[in-house]
Amino acid sequence: MWIGLVFAFLGVFGSALPGHFGMRVLAYREHLDRQLPFAPGTGQGGLPYSWWLMRFGHKAHPQARVLNQFGNLAGVFGWIALVALVAAVFCFIMSKA
């Protein structure tokens, strides 16, 4: 049973992660195009920018509606991917117990 759940959660993870990365790229591009100030440490993109989006830091720019749309999707997909990965690891550990 646990191994089946591992593959189920890996499937969810594998579906949400590309969505997160795609929306993150679009949000970052919109951030650059509008010349909005970046939070400290997020100017180069990457993992800090992903974490900033997952904490919905883009809400500090309410005038950037497109950034908010892409940022919301990236944040939600990021949380889904993170929870699915943690659940898959938990199920894998439980399958070995």
**How would you spell out the order of helices and strands?**
HHH
Largest sheet: none
The tally of domains stands at 1
**Helix and strand composition category:** mainly alpha
Helical residue percent band:
over 70%
Q: What is the radius of gyration computed over CA atoms, rounded to a whole number of angstroms?
A: 16 Å
Q: Number of helical segments? A: 3
Strand content: under 5%
Distance between the termini: 13 Å
Rounded mean pLDDT is 95
Low-confidence stretches: none
Tell how many strands the DSSP assignment holds.
0
The global form is elongated
What does this protein look like?
With 97 residues, the protein is an all-alpha fold. The protein has one domain (2-96). It is 75% helix and 0% strand. The protein is built from three helices and no strands. The radius of gyration is 16 Å and the shape is elongated.
